[in-house]
């Protein structure tokens, strides 16, 4: 045992210094006088503070802050203050050093950023996730200083790159959080390279088999791709030289995650994903000629290769909200396959790669910065005091991912909204009062309802009425966070007024029945009428849904209830649930850290079957639910309620059957259904619950719900079905 613990401290010291020097080299471009001294001071403090700490892999802990600083400098292009903060980001949380010490050494700004990076101390209500609160705090600091988020992303990226030594449930939680929040955030801040890497790394842990499959396939075709790119680019380069344009051209493979998404979305095998890579043309041009040069390059490419008219994206004339500028077109390549071509200048490319950080560098030249507007929106959302952390997260998430559409006001001003926004969103975007009193809209001079989805380039005029007030169902119509929070707060205000009224009525009614008006009795009444809060009780009284006779009925049963207490959900702990549940004899799932037999339900959203990677989720009322780790809802559950996730794995004891669905596509041939049902019922002896078949102009599409034993059983069945003549694809689908 002793030998393992012999760590070569000398070699480690050398390695630490080597890494520090590499970091200094990365900081060189942004360094000013006196910066080196600051960095050295930060490095020394970090080294001293973390000297006895090690990471899960056994490496010295200091490797982590140096790596985060390296990412911040090299991949995001941040300056000295940020690098100092990156080196010190864990010091306050993990060691004796306080924020005051940091402020004394490095000044207020640095202390503030580090405070934003430090996780929240103090205990929160356990039902609200610590993660959601942490995220909210991080965004609050974003509103002051975006560097907090950028360093946080660098921190998350390094943690994702080095997650191999963590226990699996931690890996799943961190990966889910990353795909749910951090990747969209990187996307929003224009850090595309980091966004793609975060998505790929999350997929590596959440769907390891698929990840390995796509990575292997990509690798196999590497040489073939390189040759294709070379042949594709040569004629373009030739004409560009003749026309005096200088440019770098290269092919960039798409990320594993985006290839897999395309396979899922279009339901196609890997071989049929055409745009496995994009060709990038990066022009070296003067600021005043940028636009003209991009279009010149575009015309050269489209003269050589035929473009797909539906696939031109012009973000040069109107950049995306995060400042992204580029011309994208898809052209038919020499071998009859579609190739995506992205044309941009060096300045645009730097903004695309480094996002926000590059913006500051070019700030003077960009007229109105979409990112500043976006941060303004984040500030507005955060200023809504009542938002619960989760609602906030979900609203925020929706506005993170979405692509933008541009809408014109009647006077021709341009307003940016997320794709999928409705006329009502537009009304709230103009002003809260316009939104609250909106009764309809004219889109391109035609009258439309509030729920009308807007298209890029629509011109919208809002029609209002002083009698209109926000309605509950408006929440289903709007998609922007601003509209949601305004509607919620005005509904709350409305409810509050009704409740005030109901409170007075109830007080009088209770008095006439000689019942004391106190919290205890109100609680009992709410419980009796199965209401969640006393406010709902007041509202129902005000609306006449609860009358005097109902309260009298309560009185007569009250004697019984006297002895019962108000029921509250059991403490959401595994032990609490274990006490309530006896082990089921037929159990084939082992749950919890000790992997015991506990009762569970299979989640209908993803219908897990034995052999799937699964986890348990403790629900409030239905005990433990089992989900697949790649279930559509899993990322959200793990990211928000990590503390309610428990381990689960299948126990191979007896054969039970589980319901799952298959979607089958093919060419409609005589006897196809007969062959299909024969394979399922006779050869595999599997019970079918339902089968629906649709044949349209010779194309066959069917879905079958069947009972199988486990994933192995299912895979064998899929392989056999694929061999039936005429069948082209079989995929498993969730509920």
Description:
By secondary structure, this protein is of the alpha+beta class. It is globular and about 95 Å long. The strands form five sheets. It has a five-stranded mixed beta sheet. Strands 11-15-13-14-12 form a five-stranded mixed beta sheet. It is 50% helix and 15% strand. The two termini are 51 Å apart. It is built from 30 helices and 19 strands. β4 and β5 form a beta hairpin.
Describe the sheet with the most strands: 5 strands, mixed
Q: Per DSSP, what share of the residues sits in E-state strands of 2 or more residues?
A: 15-25%
Rough shape?
Answer: globular
Work out the number of β strands: 19
Oligomer: single chain
Q: Would you tell me the structural class of the helices and strands?
A: alpha+beta
Rounded mean pLDDT score: 80
Contiguous runs where pLDDT drops below 50 for at least 5 residues: 1-5, 120-128, 363-368, 563-571, 578-586
Q: Tell me the radius of gyration.
A: 30 Å
What is the helical fraction, as a range of percent?
Answer: 40-55%
Distance between the termini: 51 Å
Q: Strand order, main sheet: write it out.
A: 1-2-5-4-3
Number of H/I helices: 30
């Amino acid at each position: 045992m002793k030998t393992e613990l012999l760590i070569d401290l000398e070699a480690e010291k050398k390695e630490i210094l080597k890494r520090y020097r590499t970091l200094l080299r990365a900081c060189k471009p942004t360094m000013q006088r006196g910066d080196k001294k600051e960095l050295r001071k930060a490095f020394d403090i970090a080294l001293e503070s973390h000297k006895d700490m090690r990471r899960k892999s056994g490496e010295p802990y200091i490797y982590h802050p140096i790596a985060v600083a390296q990412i911040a400098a090299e991949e995001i292009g941040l300056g000295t203050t940020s690098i100092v903060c990156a080196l010190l980001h864990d010091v306050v949380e993990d060691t004796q050093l306080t924020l005051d010490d940091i402020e004394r050494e490095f000044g207020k700004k640095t202390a503030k950023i580090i405070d934003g990076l430090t996780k929240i101390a103090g205990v929160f209500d356990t039902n609200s996730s610590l993660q959601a609160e942490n995220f909210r705090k991080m965004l609050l600091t974003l509103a002051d200083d975006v560097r907090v988020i950028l360093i946080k992303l660098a921190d998350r990226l390094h943690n994702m790159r080095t997650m191999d030594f963590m226990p699996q449930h931690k890996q799943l939680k961190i990966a889910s959080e990353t795909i749910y929040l951090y990747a969209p955030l990187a996307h929003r801040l224009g850090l595309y390279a980091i966004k793609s890497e975060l998505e790929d790394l999350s997929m590596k842990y959440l769907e390891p088999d698929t990840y390995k499959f796509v990575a292997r396939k990509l690798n196999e075709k590497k040489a073939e791709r390189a040759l294709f790119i070379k042949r594709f680019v040569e004629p373009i380069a030739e004409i560009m030289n003749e026309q005096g344009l200088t440019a770098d051209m290269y092919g960039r493979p798409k990320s594993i995650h985006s290839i897999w998404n395309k396979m899922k979305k279009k339901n196609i095998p890997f071989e049929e994903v055409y745009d496995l890579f994009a060709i990038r043309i990066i022009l070296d041009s003067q600021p005043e000629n940028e636009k003209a040069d991009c279009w010149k390059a575009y015309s050269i490419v489209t003269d050589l290769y035929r473009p797909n008219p539906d696939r031109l994206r012009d973000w040069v004339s109107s950049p995306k909200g995060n400042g992204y500028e580029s011309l994208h077109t898809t052209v038919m390549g020499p071998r009859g396959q579609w190739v995506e071509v992205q044309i941009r200048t060096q300045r645009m490319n730097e903004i695309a790669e480094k996002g926000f950080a590059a913006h500051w560098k070019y700030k003077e030249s960009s007229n109105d910065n979409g990112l500043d507007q976006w941060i303004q929106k984040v500030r507005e959302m955060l200023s809504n005091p009542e938002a619960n952390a989760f609602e906030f997260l979900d609203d925020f998430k929706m506005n993170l991912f979405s692509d933008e559409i541009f809408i014109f006001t009647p006077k021709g001003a341009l307003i940016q909204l997320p794709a999928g926004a409705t006329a009502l969103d537009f009304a709230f975007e103009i002003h809260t009062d316009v939104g609250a009193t909106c009764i309809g809209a004219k889109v391109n001079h035609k009258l439309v309802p509030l729920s009308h989805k807007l298209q890029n380039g629509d011109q919208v005029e809002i029609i209002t009425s002083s009698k209109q007030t926000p309605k509950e169902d408006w929440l289903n119509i709007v998609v922007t966070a601003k509209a949601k929070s305004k509607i919620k707060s005005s509904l709350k205000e409305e409810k509050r007024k009704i409740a005030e009224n109901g409170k007075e009525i109830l007080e009088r009614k209770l008095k006439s029945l000689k019942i004391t008006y106190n919290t205890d009795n109100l609680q009992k009444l709410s419980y009796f009428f199965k209401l969640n809060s006393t406010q709902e009780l007041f509202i129902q009284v005000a609306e006449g849904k609860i009358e005097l006779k109902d309260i009298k009925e309560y009185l007569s049963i009250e004697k019984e209830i006297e002895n019962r207490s108000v029921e509250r959900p059991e403490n959401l702990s595994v032990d609490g649930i274990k006490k309530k549940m006896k082990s089921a004899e037929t159990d084939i799932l082992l749950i919890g850290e000790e992997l015991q037999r506990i009762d569970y339900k299979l989640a209908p959203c993803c219908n897990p079957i034995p052999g799937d990677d699964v986890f348990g989720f403790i629900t409030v009322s239905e005990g433990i639910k089992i989900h697949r780790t790649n279930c559509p809802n899993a990322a959200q559950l793990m990211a928000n309620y990590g503390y309610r996730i428990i381990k689960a794995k299948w126990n191979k004891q007896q054969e039970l059957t589980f319901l799952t669905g298959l979607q089958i596509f093919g060419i409609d041939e005589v006897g196809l259904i007969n062959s299909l049902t024969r394979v399922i019922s006779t050869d595999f002896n599997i019970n079918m619950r339902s089968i629906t078949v649709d044949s349209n102009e010779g194309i066959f599409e069917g879905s079958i719900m069947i009972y199988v034993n486990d994933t192995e059983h299912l895979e064998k069945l899929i392989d056999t079905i694929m061999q039936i003549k005429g069948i082209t694809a079989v995929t498993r689908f969730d509920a």
